[in-house]
Amino acid sequence: MDTTMNSRMEPTVMVVFGAAGDLTWRKLVPALYNLYLDGRLPERFAIVGVARQEMDDAGFRRKLREGVDLHSRRSVTDESTWSGFADRLSYLAGDFTTAETGALLSRRLEGLDREWNGRAVRVFYFAIPPGLMEAAARQLESLGVCRDCSRDRLVVEKPFGRDLASARQLNGLLTSLFAETQIYRIDHYLGKETVQNILAFRFANSLFEPVWNRRYIDHVQITVAEAVGVGKRGGYYDTSGALRDMVQNHLLQILCLIAMEPPVSFSADEVRNKKVDVLRAIRPIRPEEVHRVAVRGQYGRGMVACEGVTGYREEQGVPPDSVTETFAALKLWIDNWRWQGVPFYLRTGKRLRAKVSEVAILFRPAPHQLFPSAAVESWQPNRLVLRIQPEEGIASRIQVKQPGTRLLLGAVDMGFRYHDAFHAASPEAYETLLLDVICGDATLFMRADQVESAWGVISPILDTWESVPPADFPNYQAGGWGPETADLLIAKEGHSWVQPDLPTEEGETEAP
Ligand SMILES: NC(=O)C1=CN([C@@H]2O[C@H](COP(=O)(O)OP(=O)(O)OC[C@H]3O[C@@H](n4cnc5c(N)ncnc54)[C@H](OP(=O)(O)O)[C@@H]3O)[C@@H](O)[C@H]2O)C=CC1
Ligand SMILES: O=C1O[C@H](COP(=O)(O)O)[C@@H](O)[C@H](O)[C@H]1O
Q1: Is 350 marked as a binding-site residue?
Q2: Which end of the chain has fewer CB atoms at under 10 Å, N or C?
Q3: Which atom from ligand 1 is nearest to the alpha carbon of 19?
Q4: In the prediction, which pLDDT does 423 show?
């Protein structure tokens, strides 16, 4: 632990709109606390929380301390360290859309500048319900507190719009009020260590890049499975569904990292340009094709981790006849030189067998089979699995000769786990991303055109699903791998899902 604050970093104030909410409590403040423990925050750093709930500074600190105790990867071990952090937290009770709260906030920011003898970097974090983003942006602009393009930033949480039209409208408003370089659209998957490692894996090793194309890769599978249900977020989730909540952002971003061309450098715009190229190359889905390339599901009751759980329609805030999908699987084609003819399968869902996110790259067979057919009875394709969470790591499956006097091939795995290789805990995604905002690095954030292109990919599916309600919901049992139709989707090309290896209690992996 190194709580020496960084004296070379610019003085910074982070204003959190929506500071009494779940995100601030569960993710943002625990992440900032961990940055503090690592000595990664500026020496002069303050957090100003804004929300309508009546609370004083002490109440705000108590609430956030509880959040840190419950959700931080490192707990509070000594009170003086916590106080050193908590002294930087203050609260402003009020509706941020009113002139009164705006004036109080402006005064507080000016006060900090005076105290610190200079204009601080200002980060405005919109941790507010999606419907309030536009009002918050207008208010921020009218206060005139976010006009220095090089020092003032705003962070916009997901969901960024609810379809292409609303995302365009929000982008239009934000870019009319602020410079694009000030806007940080967050997708927390991009802050995950192992998601970032996809780029390191692909572009820092000469071993894999030569085979990373249609000549050697047969197909790609991206799985982001969750064991949890919608919990207390049923009200929000029911207006969203798996396609908007997970595919439009997290899964398509992972796909971009797997499929993008090498950027010239690791600068924000170089990386983002290459990712946008991928989204633009995804073959548009015609409405009449939707049923062939996309599958939806909703969980019914079942067992997860040996416990009985309710179905989606019984969750808090969910209507009993809801037709919102909690599972989505897609088949996408990327129409470019590298990926022509290689299907990309994506699937995500709640209340699946386990929480696990991974990318499986399945390779084509060797061009000439020289072994007798008896030797290759149990042949399996070469594959590479990039495990994002949990037990982050990489495993490749290769064929070897089985020991013995007969020539018989068998598949074995070679791999590494982050934990075994580095013996260090990874930072949470929000730690990485908040530090990047403080430092003004937008590489891991979404640009306007990325967000819109991603909405463009899923729009035909959203439209078709909305116009034709499903007749068979709920169509998968909690605790499985989703509806049978997801297996059929991929079986049409002669493929089957690679079911992730699951950790057992002893830390060994269990066959799926
Ligand atoms: N929670 C999560 O895990 C995740 C959340 N997000 C996104 O983050 C954002 C926030 O989510 P979450 O924290 O869960 O939402 P909550 O509903 O828990 O919190 C919203 C906050 O906004 C405040 N607020 C609402 N209206 C105003 C207003 N006019 N003036 C001042 N404050 C206001 C509320 O406090 P009060 O009523 O006291 O004003 C509350 O503190 C959403 O966009 C969500 O989609 C994204 C990913 C994950
Ligand atoms: O953005 C979201 O992500 C979480 C899953 O994130 P993870 O880091 O736990 O994998 C998901 O539960 C939530 O519905 C969604 O809004």
Answers
A1: yes
A2: N
A3: 41
A4: 84
Identify whether residues 343 and 432 lie together within a single domain. yes
- CATH number for the domain harbouring residue 41: 3.40.50.720
Average pLDDT value for residue range 323-343: 98
Show the ligand 2 pocket: residues with CB < 6 angstroms: 226, 245
Q: Structural domain of residue 73, as residue ranges? A: 12-157
Mean per-residue pLDDT, 356-361: 97
509 pLDDT above the threshold of 80: no
Domain boundary residue among 114, 138, 157?
A: 157
**355 appears as a binding residue in the annotation:** yes
- Overall domain count for the chain: 2
Is position 250 annotated as part of the catalytic site?
yes
**DSSP secondary structure, 101-128, as one string:** HHHHHHHHHHHHHHHTTSPPEEEEEE-S
Q: Of 91, 123, 157, which residue sits at a domain end? A: 157
Dist. CA 224 → ligand 2 center (Å): 9
Percent of the chain, pLDDT > 70? 97
Which mutation among 245, 327, 359, 432 tests ligand 2's pocket best, with the greatest number of atoms within 8 A of CB? 245
Q: Is 194 among the domain residues?
A: no
Residues 262 and 344 in one domain: yes
What is the C-alpha R_g of the chain? 24
Average pLDDT over residues 202-216: 94
Average pLDDT over residues 325-330: 98
Which ligand approaches the C-alpha of residue 254 most closely?
Answer: 2
Output the six-digit token pair for 43. Answer: 């020496």
Q: Tens digits of per-residue pLDDT, 409-429?
A: 999 999 989 888 888 888 999
pLDDT at 2: 64
Residue 504: is its pLDDT beyond 80? Answer: no
Predicted pLDDT of residue 168: 97
Q: What is the pLDDT of residue 506?
A: 47
Residue 75 backbone dihedrals phi, psi, to 5 degrees: -85, 175
272 is written with which tokens?
A: 């983002």
To test the pocket of ligand 1, the residue of 15, 16, 22 to mutate (highest count of ligand atoms within 8 Å of its CB) is 22
Is there a single domain that holds both residue 347 and residue 478?
yes
CATH code of the domain containing 485: 3.30.360.10
Q: Which of the 8 DSSP states describes residue 139?
A: H
User: Do the annotations mark residue 158 as ligand-binding?
Assistant: yes
Contact 407, 393 (CB under 8 A): no
Q: Give domain status of residue 96, yes or no.
A: yes
Residue 511 has pLDDT above 50, yes or no: no
Q: Please check whether residue 499 is in contact with residue 481, taking contact to mean a CB–CB distance below 8 angstroms.
A: yes
391 belongs to a structural domain: no
Backbone φ and ψ for 375, nearest 5 degrees, come out as -75, -20
